[in-house]
Amino acid sequence: MVILRPPTVLCIDNEAAALSLRQMLLEQAGYTVLPATTAVAAFKLFKSQTIDLVICDHLLPDLTGAEMTHKMKQDRPFVPVILFSAVGDAPPGSEHADLFLNKADGPAEFLLKVADLLRPNRITEGNFFAEIRCDQRPVPAIWHYTVQHLRCNEILGWSQASSETAAIHAARTEMRERGRWESEKNAHKIKD
Prior knowledge:
Blueprint: E1 8-12, H1 16-28, E2 32-36, H2 39-48, E3 53-57, H3 65-75, E4 81-85, E5 99-102, H4 107-117, E6 121-125, E7 128-135, E8 142-149, E9 155-161, H5 164-191
Parallel strand pairs: 1-2, 1-3, 3-4, 4-5
Antiparallel strand pairs: 6-7, 7-8, 8-9
């Protein structure tokens, strides 16, 4: 049986009051929130925890949100990132984020955008599942998929496709191949 956990959001802001308010809003909406006030603390959490979404303030003292987004996307390109700021226009480097959101948009719009980014298409095949997401930043859009074992948080495979149909087909193919490999491996263990 698979126990679904609430999505985990890494929320980064050097202003403690703003971070606390955002954490409370997200937790009331049902998310698990890991707060961080510095880039160092954020990267430590990002590398050690299962993170489903990152919300990063842009104006941080030790690194800009755009710089953090770029580094995080290099490490885990499939984790969506919202660059969140009070600046009017998207800052340089924001193209690495999945979404730039202005703080003036308000809590209802904020929660709607969070929910949209956390709503992947999920497919299963045997003991595996894949999450399909669309990155609409480039034109044309790129579809990503990740493959995981049902009882493990580790990402076993990740790739891109040019359409949702192609991503689903590729993910199903990879899950079937992993299932065959797993069956063969278990059959050899039984014989030995």
